[in-house]
Amino acid sequence: MNPLRWYIFCRVIDNLGDAGVCLRLARELAGRGQLIELWIDRPGILDWMEPSLHPHIKVFDWPNEGAMTEHTNDDQGGVSPTGYGLNDSVDVIVEAFGCEIPESFKKILSKQAEQGTQKTQWINLEYLSAESYAEQNHGLLSPVLSGPGVGAKKWFFYPGFTERTGGLILEQSVHQKIIQSQPSPPPSLSRRKTRLRVGLFCYAHAPLKSLLDTIKHQDWADNGITLNIPQGEAQRIVNQSIDEFASHDGLSHVDIDVCNFDRLTQNEFDEMLWSNDLNFVRGEDSLVRAIWVGKPWIWQIYKQSDGAHETKLNALLDLLNCPHFVKEIHWSWNQCSGDTFTLASMRDVEKWSQWSAWCLQIRSKLTEQADLVTQLMAFVDEKRQKTVES
């Protein structure tokens, strides 16, 4: 079967998570032989996020319809003007996270539908959610009733954590790594003789000072602790807070080492997570990455002004049958309650063993489900058989 040509459209909202998900999708599709054009409004971030693109991926600057240019981050570098648009060779358009593809593209899809065969499959890839609507809406048809795309068909595709959703991005290489990996012992002090490694990837409003208080007052760092912190505002806050503690003799007895990372490629970020004993992660992309690691993780969800993030957080924790004490940790880390953030004592072998076992259990369950790329390719193939190939 000949490879399909995919257009993936992405707008970067604020914290680069949208770009991260779209890049992973593009990489895995390309790795399975598909031809990808990634249209993104901030292509420069891919220079450090993915310095060496798969040869099947082309990146296009998508600031507006009148200024679409091809962007390359290979050895030649530079941006060259082009006049690319939709044509009959494009098999699939992925509209990531409701980003709204250009009107000129919608008009061509509308014309295809008017002629009786919409040859290009139009997929609306939604945000990841554990809420019930993900199952209810996954795979539904969304006919365009008005506007430049009138008459065209668009399909909802919902990532998720159950078999009735589109699944999660799980690269074949990562799946193989999971199969080959050996479960790690829980990071309790009674079983550890080496430094505790903690990944700290969070938003700036996380209760970071409370985390440092936990390190200072509990037995967290009896064998030494290394905080691995990717680039971001959290780096500044943690380093400033440690300096303040040190000036008041607050952390002078603690063997703590802060490793401030500069910009990490996706592969480097993933490897950093795998090297840690505990991972604090944020948003959609890094949550899934932490799940595949199979070690204790704490998720900081993107905060919404109407408080809807609390419902989304609880939906995930409930769906995954999260232990209650781990729920309480998540609630306090996300500041959903008035409780000060704290963690179980590192000498509490029972809790850390339960937490570690839960992480391995949900990883095992989720890897048994069909991954997102496998499902998406099968979904597109099914729709093509009913239109192009029928």
General description of the model:
This protein has two domains: 5-168 and 370-386, Rossmann fold (3-Layer(aba) Sandwich); 172-368, Glycogen Phosphorylase B (Rossmann fold), CATH 3.40.50. 38% of the residues lie in helices and 17% in strands. The protein has helices spanning 17-31, 46-49, 103-114, 132-137, 172-180, 208-217, 233-247, 266-275, 283-293, 308-319, 324-333, 349-368, 372-386; strands at residues 5-10, 35-40, 57-61, 69-71, 79-81, 92-96, 121-125, 141-143, 153-157, 196-200, 225-229, 256-260, 278-282, 297-300. Helix 1 packs across helix 9. The two termini are 16 Å apart. Mean pLDDT is 87; it is low at 74-84.
Query: Kindly, what is the distance between the CA atoms of the first and last residues, rounded to a whole number of angstroms?
Result: 16 Å
Report the strand count. 14
How much of the sequence lies in strands comes to: 15-25%
> In this structure, how is the largest beta sheet organized?
9 strands, mixed
Shape: elongated
Arithmetic mean pLDDT: 87
Q: Can you write the helix and strand succession as a string?
A: EHEHEEEEHEHEEHEHEHEHEHEHHHH
Would you identify the regions where 5 or more consecutive residues have pLDDT less than 50?
74-84
CATH superfamily of the largest domain: Glycogen Phosphorylase B
Looking at the structure, the CATH topology of the largest domain is: Rossmann fold
Q: State the CATH architecture of the largest domain.
A: 3-Layer(aba) Sandwich
The radius of gyration computed from the alpha-carbon positions, rounded to a whole number of angstroms, is 23 Å
How many separate structural domains? 2
Give me the secondary-structure category.
alpha/beta
